[in-house]
Every structure is written in structure tokens, then in C-alpha cells.
Amino acid sequence: MNNIKSLNWSFIGLVALAIFISYLPIVSVPFTWVMTFFHEISHGIAALITGGSVDNIHIYLNGSGLCYTKGGIKFIVTFSGYTGAVIWGVLLYMMADRFSHKRSNIIAFSISGLILISALLWGRDVLTLVILAILFCLFVSIVQLQETWVMKLTLKFIGIFVLLDAVKAPLNLIDGRHYGDGATLSDLTWIPEILWVIVWFIIGMGGLLYIWRIGGKVSS
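RE: above sequence
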């Protein structure tokens, strides 16, 4: 009974709201853009870190995306998409719940800069540039309003939404088409695609459990 009383119902409410909104085709799209950007830029960062390069990034109106890279360690580049999205989701939540105002602003500035660099260097079509401009404005506004309760709540919601999408999105790879990150890793390692889906699912659930443990209970 004490555990039930100690639950932070706002956390549970945000999870429920994120699940509900994820099934609303139009309303969910802007939040999916955030997740897609973090997924694709994680591929790009992995390519750059392992000695490769990024050719271009596309984000589409329906929330799907692509990141074309050259060189680098292909296994790390491919694995980093869904895994990176989980890390970004946790980071967003912690900006609102755990980090100091100064540290949160540094992270928000860094993400804004990353979006701007992505648009200038790797944006190749108008739609992608428009979407990146919207995301840039979002994170600039976070810098300005991060101390307000509305922005803190928004950051928590976006973090949770990104994590939930990172849990759900790999499951879409189980479609029999042998296409996408799971299929690429399967071809590289001879490990069945379903096992990579399970790994990403576990990582995503681990991210949700982590923010639940650090922010899902009322502090005493």
C-alpha cells in the first residue's frame, strides 16, 4: 500500500498520454519527428565517430526518416539508431527532472546546434529543412523557458514519448520484408533479425525503467 501511495501519478499520466497520442495520426507526428531526428542523427554521429561521414538526412512528413552515411564501422552505425534514441529520450527527461538549469541549458543549446548543423550540412530537401527548423525552434524555446513548469512537463512528455517510440518502433521490423536496421545487422552478423529487435526492445524498456526509478517516485 505504501508503494502505491508513493507513486508519482503525474509520471504515470504522462506515460498514458504518450501512449494515447502515439495512436493519433496527426497529433503524434511532431513528436515522432523528434524521435526520428534522434534516431537518424545517432546513425550519423556513430558514422563520424568511427571514421565515416554523413551524406544526407531525410525526415518525412509521416515521421519516417533516413540517414545516408559512408564508411565507418557499419555494425556500430546500424546498431546506434534505436539505441541512440533511447539515450536521447532519457537525456530529455533528465533535463526536466534531474539536471541543474545550467546543465539543461547546455544540453538544449547543444541539441539546437546539432539540429542546425544537420540542416546546413546534410539537409537536402525542403521538407526536411522545414521539419528541422521546427525542431530547432522547439529546443531554442526550451533554453528560454526551461525553468517554467510547462516546459519541464513538456520535456518529460517528449522524453517519455521518444522512449516509448524507441520500444515500439523496432517491433515494426517484424514484417517479413527483411528491410531496415535489423535486417542489416542480421546480414552482418548472421544473427536473426528478431534477436536484434528483442535487444532494442530490452534497451528501450531499460530506458523507461531507468527514468521511472529516478523520477517516477515522489522524493521524500
